[in-house]
Fold this protein.
Amino acid sequence: MKLVLSGNEAAAYGAMLARAEVISAYPITPQTKIVEKIADLIADGRFKTEFIKVESEHSAMAACISASLVGARTFTATSSQGLLLMHEMLHWASGSRTPVVMVNINRAVAPPWSVWADQTDSIAQRDTGWIQYYCESCQEVVDTIMQAYRVCEDPRVLLPAMLSEDAFFLSHTSEIVDLPPQEELDAFLGTYEPDVRLDIDNPRSFGSLSMPHQWYPEFRYKIQEGMEHAVEAIERVDREYGSLFGRSYGGLLDLYRCEDADTVIVAAGSMCSTIRAAIEELRSEGVKVGMARIRVFRPFPTEAFRALAKDVRSLVVLDRSFSMGSEGAFFSEVKAALYPLSDRPDVRGFAVGIGGRDITIETIRSIITDSLRPDTGITAQKWVGLRRCEE
Amino acid sequence: MDLIEIRWHGRGGQGVVTASELFAEAAMQDGNYIQAFPEFGPERMGAPIKAFTRICPTPITIHSQVYTPNIVVVLDPTLLGSVDVTQGLGTDGILIVNTPKDAKEIATMLGYAGRLYTLDATKIALETIGRPVANTACAGALVKVSGLVSMDNMMAATKEKFREKLSEKAVLANIETIRKAYEEVSV
């Protein structure tokens, strides 16, 4: 069934089609429409779920963790400041091995106040033990919610996942979204049946004290093991989804026109669509350029980057976030992944689209032109399009 | 790539975003790929706002904002003079303005040399819907002027879009508005 849905509405439909049993969420711009649409779907009798109203994002995540421990499939959504308020509970979710799925609308972090697209909010959660997907279209939001539950609920993974979509560029943009039939999705997804759960007839304790000589490092190591299994699970589930529903997204690293490319742009989120259009223009002018879209940031697609690096002269990494005192996370992590290779491509980094500043085809073209200049020996990340006080 | 970009001007509460979506949904029924989105940011009742529609026979691989629209539609005549409605619109473009004034007068006022059409969409809406909501009338005028979607698909999209939100009577009134605007705008 084809509908016209915004990225926010797509998230609500995704939760419904996945038959999330418990939802707890707190509204925040530009995510509010997700919560409103879920409320509509419940009020219309189309979505049978338990919606728990809470006073904050911190409590929303606490409710999701508890419901997930009982064995319920849970969903939540937030953005920016809300995600930051959740930070403590994000660690609890992964540490408790609860497969909560969350949609995060990538919005800049204040101050100054900004409700526009920026990936700092989710990148700042990279060490919380959550799988991180970045979506490029409203269609991919629905499809990835389905895939994420399958990956997260895999007993060898058993970790939470956040799907990010850029504020406004996806959250408020309506596009054609094809919703697969419910019964086929039910067959694909199954139900969540954890081996270990909170049960009053068989009491257990989750998250209790662990002295240094007890099991703390082992629990943490098991999370890393889950992440390593997630690499295979994400690839496999994406392929299976593609064979069933005709859409797959390249697993962790989505390669576009990389076969004969000298230069490959590395990016994530809604800007990747615009990059595709820019690549078409540049290719028609004889510039051999492709794109490696970071669809999954955690677990990091290390092996995929190493395989790509073999045939590429340079990588141009675009970050819509910045780690103050260092550089953008994508820039750092791409370089770290390639370090063990003896023959490495040149890697250049650009910070672009910060705080929702628009990224046009022209922006991408100017970055490529800049990066094609002979190596000036400057390897620091450049900030694109900064205004000057005189302007 | 035959990408068409449309910019809609109006005020918060006038159904500007709805018009951008409605026209996209009608174009989708013709087999096109579409996008519809509001101006990015907070929307306030009565404040000038914009919305956008993209229509393309092939998949739209772009998620940046619209700077050089092919078509501009102005739902509220009080914006003329305070909002630069022709910004980025080339002389090969199309401008549709809801106003009782004739096109020549508006062309002189805006200094716009491209194709310009006017209609009294507010009057049509008052007659058919009973409220001064010009969004569906302007969409009806755009159907005729642009030739981008068929009237049948516009009607079908209108019924589908408003089916759950409006009463049957109100849906029919909007259909009548679109039909009347289609007839009244002279090409």
Remarks:
- The radius of gyration of chain A is 21 Å.
- The first strand of chain A starts at residue 2 and ends at 6.
- Chain A touches chain B at residues 2, 4, 6, 29, 115-116, 136, 166-170, 172-176, 270-271, 273-274, 276-277, 280, 356, 358-361, 363 (CB under 8 Å).
- The longest helix of chain A spans residues 216-245.
